[in-house]
Write a structure and sequence with these properties.
It contains eight helices and eight strands, in the order H-H-E-E-H-E-E-H-H-H-E-H-E-E-H-E. The longest helix is centred in the middle third of the chain and has 27 residues. It is globular, with a radius of gyration of 23 Å.
Length: 231
Amino acid sequence: MFPDKTTHMKTILLPAFLSLIMVISSCSRNHVPSVLYQKIAKHKAIPILPAEMIYTGVIPKNVKEEDLSKMEESESRIFQQYLHDNILQNGNTGRYALTVRVQNYTNTLQLLSASNISFHDSWYRSDEELCKILNVDAVIRMKIQKKRYMSDAASMGIDYGRQIMGAVLKRNVYAPNKTNDIIASCSIVSNGETIWNDNYRRAADWDTPVDYVVNNITENFAYHIPYRQRQ
């Protein structure tokens, strides 16, 4: 007896599907060139620097320059803390271990302050200078760009309007209501060279908790950082 068409198709497609999985896996973002491991092999300690915050798009009219500065510092600290915590949480597990000591972020801030380096100053100082002050081998930098499209109130109004229209028309109604696009990058910098970089992008609307967005972004970076190696 000859195999039926279904059996024949399964015989052809299964190896092709498995090959596709192997190709996708080989292109994973977790693949790190061996030359990078050579560069980080001697690293013993790293700090997480305050995240550089960049706000673009529609800035609220009632927000003053000093308010924006305070908001930058507050969000910079949140991203710094969350990345620090996620690197430790995702780096030291049963299957993975960190190859470096992660300086506590509060110690990093204290050392920077003792050298009269503010949040904003730390974004632009050279890694050589900061490594010397912090007594580390490389620095972890983040840059967070938030492009604002509308207020939370406007986003909520569009969302409710979409729900009402959907109920009237008895079908899903699409209406863009995101408040921000968040474009984030994370880098390892050593001896004046960016030796590793990762990028991530997500959107947020009025109903998206800030902590959720920050954790999502920093957990992504922590998962891919090359200091996290399988045991």
